[in-house]
């Protein structure tokens, strides 16, 4: 890809496809991205990203030429931290290394939806337009594949990330929070005596009708966690609800009159922490009629997570006073902060 000048008219930033040899460089400036708030997942996943040849994924790095790296005080780092030697495949010539100073990945989620994730910029290289060059490369990649929109997710407290997203054309779309019920195999004991109970054989069409008319869908703009890409959001469709039903992942509660709440399990993941493997059941969205229905729905989620042998559960819920307080009123834990989803319209001229 061609180089791009910085906003201040400085040296050009070059953006190219990532290679496995970039992994050490990327790990060097992402090990402490969020400080004590979160562990950054990029050092763990970037080697796989860079080695992946899936045409529905594009992973890119930004580089600065040696003279720009020197001005950004990158030249004093140890070899392998931020430099990539030339190898005849587009990197700098051997003996004249480039400095890898940023990364990003774009993913095709559907025929018309793309997702941008994992954008990181070496703090020492800020001010050279690295973030803008990476974002534009990802958006160009998405356009070339026919995407009408590209979305991303930004922590609500990440003012720098929010500002960068707005600067390159992303607009606010929605916000959500994770509810965190504890898996409990006995959670539904006695549910038969309640006004709202679990539906043993959920109808995906009835679930779709409920979702389509829900406040949750309105607030979330129809989005839920994508079934194939972790932590990406895409449109929840009738077909996805039908697939979830066939795979026993659709949960529904109701009374004699109608469906009163739905939730969809998207995946169960395993991760090793301090030598122990933990399993987390993730539910791509939950919607309900009122606080009572929310209580039964989260009991159903707790029982479902226990049946999946999960140690914990996360459920995407709309970030509204009604939804968050309904969860809290049923003594279900919620994350302390929301996440924001932003969207770039790719249908116009870039």
From TrEMBL:
Where do the segments described as Disordered lie? 1-22, 66-96
The N-acetyltransferase domain extends over 13-189
SUPFAM superfamilies, from UniProt? Acyl-CoA N-acyltransferases (Nat) (SSF55729)
Q: Sorted alphabetically, which keywords does the UniProt record give?
A: Transferase
Q: Where is the composition biased (Basic and acidic residues)?
A: 74-86
User: What PROSITE patterns does UniProt report for this protein, alphabetically?
Assistant: GNAT
| Keyword Chloroplast assigned | no
Record's Pfam families? Acetyltransf_1
Q: Which PANTHER family match?
A: L-2,4-DIAMINOBUTYRIC ACID ACETYLTRANSFERASE (PTHR43072:SF60), N-ACETYLTRANSFERASE (PTHR43072)
The protein, known as:
Acetyltransferase
Gene source species? Halorubrum tropicale
